[in-house]
Amino acid sequence: MRKKTITLPNGKQVVQKASYTPLIVLLVLIFMYISIQVTQFNFTQLITRGDQFFVMLKAMFPPKMDFLDKVWVPLFDTIKMSLLGSLIGALLAVPFAILASNNIVKNRFVSSLFKLILSFLRTLPTIVIALIATFVFGLGTMAGTVAIFIFTISYVGKLTYEQIESLDMSTFEALESMGLTRLQAFRYSVIPAILPSYLSTSLFNFEGNLRYASILGYVGAGGLGILLNEQLGWRDYGNVGTILVVLVITVGIIETISEYFRKKLQ
């Protein structure tokens, strides 16, 4: 860790800076030890009981095809609440992103306030929002839609305002100097620049929301999660396998479609 003086072949001496690598490695090991103690992670238990995961996985196959008829309605509920929550959230994320952008809103208090709101919404776990929503709106897909809607505003809003702030504003300023209003300058300079990225982000967010929506049912927010929780509780792993296979195929199809359109937008 000490500085070291090295003499080069030409006789010149250079000083090699002290290395902090051993200190960093030591700190990482200490924090790993503390993490293991706090989380009570047990390697022995992992080795002795880890095979039970594969036992349960094996019990899920082959899936029970006669259970398929009961999966369609919750599956479409999951897709509907993901789509609606993502769509409304992505639309409302635009005004939030504009008001959070320093280069559009010159009032630092306003832009900082909206950045703080987006950060606060982003720190709330989606499943906790869904749980709170079930107390407010009751059990069902309404609670799940609200949870996805709030998460989408925070996610799409943050990425959009960061992109707006990274833009070269010379075109925006030139349009303003030509007599266009601030709104018109925004319409013709900023929107065309961010639109492909905004749509791509919204589609990617929708993919993720579809996966989240499938577990929101654990807190009563509707969709496949309720059915999955029910079948796991009854230890009917064949039915669980049916639900997972349907979910994986659905997510795969939506991901493929979304990826196709995102590539077109690039």
From TrEMBL:
This is Phosphate-import permease protein PhnE. Belongs to the binding-protein-dependent transport system permease family. InterPro entries: MetI-like, MetI-like_sf, PhnE/PtxC. It is found in: Cell membrane. The keyword Cytoplasm does not apply. Keywords: Cell membrane, Membrane, Transmembrane, Transmembrane helix, Transport. The lineage of its organism: Bacteria, Bacillati, Bacillota, Bacilli, Lactobacillales. The keyword Membrane applies.
